[in-house]
Amino acid sequence: MSTRKWMDNAFWHNEEKEMAEAILVITDDNNREITQVVTVRKFDINGDLNTDFQELMAEVGEEKIDENTKERQERKSKEKEIEEQRKKAEEQARELEKLFDAKIKILEIDAIKNTSNKSLKSKLRRSKNQVELNLYAQLIMMEELGLGFVLNDSEKTE
């Protein structure tokens, strides 16, 4: 004789508690277990109470399903937060890699490579983003090409 048993990890699909997802284990006459993930609705297509739903409520109970649903929602929320943090870290790593590659390319430019302005070159190497990198590269290029602004003595001391 075959038997049916509902596992106690069922959870609600909706707040109205009219649909739950559960695992049903059926043991057949040859003692083989068949496991099925089942979405159980409270009412069948005729609007009558679904016997599977009644059986699930009797075996597992509404309180246990409520508890499972809450735990599942919390777990899914944490998983989503962890995934967002992982994606953010990956994006930061990609941005740093792009910045590093850009620094290498900029430092290969002869005028920048051979500049005598060690202060600007140091700032270029330490730049934290593409905008800073481009700014320091431009300042070095302007200085090397003689296009830079000349500060008068009173501006240098301020």
How would you characterize this protein structure?
The chain has 158 residues and is an alpha+beta fold. It folds into 2 domains: 3-60, no CATH class; 93-148. It is built from 6 helices and 4 strands, in the order ββββαααααα. Strands 1, 2, 3 and 4 form a 4-stranded antiparallel beta sheet that branches. A hairpin with a 5-residue loop joins β3 (19-27) and β4. α4 (118-126) packs antiparallel against α5. The protein is rod-shaped. The relative contact order is 0.08. Mean pLDDT is 91; it is low at 150-158.
Radius of gyration: 34 Å
- Spans of at least 5 consecutive residues whose pLDDT stays below 50 are 150-158
Largest sheet: 4 strands, antiparallel
Integer tally of domains: 2
The number of distinct β-strands equals 4
Structural class computed from helices and strand pairing: alpha+beta
Please report the number of helical segments.
6
Elements, N to C (H/E):
EEEEHHHHHH
Q: What's the N-to-C terminus distance?
A: 95 Å
Mean pLDDT: 91
Q: How would you classify the quaternary structure?
A: single chain
Helix content: 55-70%
Which term fits the overall shape? Answer: rod-shaped
Question: β content, as a range?
Answer: 15-25%
List keywords for this structure.
158 residues; alpha+beta; 6 helices
Task: Provide a brief overview of the structure.
This protein is an alpha+beta fold and 158 residues long. Helices cover 56% and strands 15% of the residues. It has 2 domains: 3-60, no CATH class; 93-148.
How would the blueprint of this fold be written?
Elements: E1 3-6, E2 11-12, E3 19-27, E4 33-41, H1 51-59, H2 62-107, H3 110-113, H4 118-126, H5 130-144, H6 153-157
Antiparallel strand pairs: 1-3, 2-3, 3-4
